[in-house]
């Protein structure tokens, strides 16, 4: 079963918003090498200073291995606290 994590990030101000976008553009791509990783997409709403990050995984177990990995911790260090973030896991159903 394919799953997706939808992470909603809302920045406090325009400067933080721009920094979030730049971090994703210049990411280390550690997740790209993880078993079961299928892709990442960013959806950006400048008026709301909101970013939706969607990652897709072949299985929930693959996703959980990423979330528990040293690579995950490395990829997410130094993110700062001037943005709120919430992640939700969804089952992907093809239509």
Structure description:
The protein has 95 residues and is of the alpha+beta class. It has one domain: Alpha-Beta Plaits, CATH 3.30.70. Helix content is 27%, strand content 37%. The chain has helices at residues 14-25, 60-67, 70-75, and strands at residues 3-11, 37-45, 50-57, 83-91. The chain starts with a strand and ends with a strand.
Concise overview:
With 95 residues, this protein is of the alpha+beta class. It has 3 helices and 4 strands.
Beta content: 35-45%
**Biggest β-sheet, characterized?**
4 strands, antiparallel
Order of helices and strands: EHEEHHE
Principal-axes shape call: globular
What structural category do the secondary elements indicate? alpha+beta
Please tell me the total number of domains.
1
Total of DSSP H or I helical runs spanning 4+ residues: 3
Give the overall average pLDDT. 92
The strand count comes to 4
Physical arrangement of strands within the biggest beta sheet:
2-3-1-4
Q: CATH fold name, please?
A: Alpha-Beta Plaits
- CATH hierarchy class name: Alpha Beta
Weakly predicted, low-confidence segments: none
Rg (CA only): 14 Å
